[in-house]
């Protein structure tokens, strides 16, 4: 990265001390193993680049509270150089002129921008400008409880299946007398509830926002069919609708052998292992026969505290996300590789082989899509979440629910 920094000129009046040292502040919002991993990477970076000091801390909050923290910081004028921002939030954060434009940096060959998975790159790009580096990427597949399938005498799913197969299996494996559900779905109406429907919409040819950017792209058969699938689960009473934030009850039921299948991400695998659950993982079902899933990338958003600090932040984030460090983050903090080269590394392949189902999530990165980085997204997600909850609880029709979503979401897109 030396040539990258020197090529951009001197920064004596923009955050660089008299001896050439630059100090950057990072709010990572992490705890436990993730925090320990970042601390080790920061130590290694500063040993290699002593002229850049990284003041890394949680920022006083966990990642899920970072949006409020950074919004307050931007208003006060005292904000960090790097902050961990959830993917769905970056478009609104990037409305601030204090968010840096990294486009001139990521085109440098040493950054190896194209090595990041497409979904990870898209998550940090707002209005065609890169606003940070990928921080974390995950996706959804289906975990199934082998014991439940075995006791019910039902063959395990192979991954070559349809959403109609999923609905039929969920119904067949539901047994009220035994307190057993075919599947589960978060039913708070939050993003954990919403993002699970998008692979169905995409697979059916729809989109979250259409090409005009002025209306949703699922106000058609793609949205209707997707809602019909969820509505059928609710009507069959084959789905446990978890109305508690965090979906902990849903996973407890799965681990106790009272749920057959659940769409989830790689973050849940350690809990399955700790619970000694006999589980397997397969890709999401499909309508078309092609593989489809959603990635939920988060970001290291960079803020403008002067050009020297921006350059130093880029240099640190390049180091943090380089394959050697990326594999540490992925294996020790329980994530997936950000880069294709990381997924091909011997260390990652060895790690994958030690955890049941992790290979399915890792392979899914190749075809995962992500939500669009549009400012109105939260006002699309909210009415859609409400519609999904109604379907799970069998309290509305898919047709009426979709009409209500379209009315609210389209109004949000028009006003921006």
From TrEMBL:
Tagged with keyword NAD: no
Keyword Cytoplasm in record: no
Molecular-function annotations in GO: maltose binding
InterPro entries, sorted: SBP
Coiled coil: none
GO cellular-component term (any): ATP-binding cassette (ABC) transporter complex, substrate-binding subunit-containing
Protein keywords: Signal, Transport
GO BP annotations listed: maltodextrin transmembrane transport; maltose transport
Assigned protein family: Belongs to the bacterial solute-binding protein 1 family.
Family annotation (PANTHER family): MALTOSE-BINDING PERIPLASMIC PROTEIN, MALTOSE_MALTODEXTRIN-BINDING PERIPLASMIC PROTEIN
Name recorded for this polypeptide: ABC transporter substrate-binding protein
Source organism of this protein record: Micromonospora globispora
Classification of source organism: Bacteria, Bacillati, Actinomycetota, Actinomycetes, Micromonosporales
């Amino acid at each position: 990265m030396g040539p990258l920094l020197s090529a951009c000129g001197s920064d004596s009046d923009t955050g660089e001390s008299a001896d050439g040292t630059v100090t950057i502040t990072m709010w990572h919002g992490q705890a436990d193993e993730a925090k320990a991993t970042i601390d080790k990477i920061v130590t290694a970076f500063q040993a290699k680049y002593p002229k850049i000091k990284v003041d890394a801390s949680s920022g006083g909050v966990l990642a899920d509270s970072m949006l409020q923290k950074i919004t307050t910081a931007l208003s006060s004028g005292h904000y960090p150089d790097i902050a961990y921002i959830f993917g769905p939030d970056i478009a609104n954060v990037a409305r601030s002129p204090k968010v840096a434009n990294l486009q001139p940096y990521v085109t440098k060959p040493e950054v190896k921008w194209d090595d990041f998975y497409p979904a990870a790159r898209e998550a940090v790009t707002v209005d065609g400008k890169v606003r940070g580096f990928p921080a974390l990427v995950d996706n959804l597949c289906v975990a199934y409880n082998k014991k439940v399938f075995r006791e019910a005498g039902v063959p395990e799913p192979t991954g070559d299946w349809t959403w109609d197969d999923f609905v039929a299996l969920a119904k067949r494996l539901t047994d009220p007398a035994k307190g057993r559900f075919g599947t589960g779905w978060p039913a708070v109406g939050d993003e954990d509830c919403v993002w699970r429907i998008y692979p169905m919409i995409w697979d059916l040819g729809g989109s979250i926002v259409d090409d005009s950017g002025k209306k949703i792209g699922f106000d058609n058969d793609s949205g209707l069919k997707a809602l019909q699938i969820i509505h059928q689960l609710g009507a069959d009473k084959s789905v446990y609708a978890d109305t508690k934030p965090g979906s902990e009850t849903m996973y407890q039921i799965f681990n106790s052998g009272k749920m057959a299948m659940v769409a989830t991400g790689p973050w849940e695998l350690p809990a399955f292992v700790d619970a000694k659950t006999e589980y397997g993982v397969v890709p999401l079902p499909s309508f078309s026969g092609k593989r489809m899933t959603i990635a939920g990338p988060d970001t290291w958003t960079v803020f403008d505290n002067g050009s020297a600090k921006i350059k130093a932040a880029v240099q640190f984030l390049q180091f943090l996300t380089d394959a050697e460090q990326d594999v540490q983050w992925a294996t020790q903090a329980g994530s997936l590789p950000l880069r294709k080269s990381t997924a091909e590394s011997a260390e990652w392949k060895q790690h994958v082989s030690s955890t049941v189902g992790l290979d399915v999530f890792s392979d899914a990165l190749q075809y995962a899509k992500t939500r669009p980085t549009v400012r109105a997204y939260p006002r699309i997600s909210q009415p859609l979440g409400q519609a999904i909850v109604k379907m799970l609880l069998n309290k509305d029709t898919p047709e009426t629910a979709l009409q209500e979503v379209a009315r609210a979401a389209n109004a949000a897109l028009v006003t921006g």
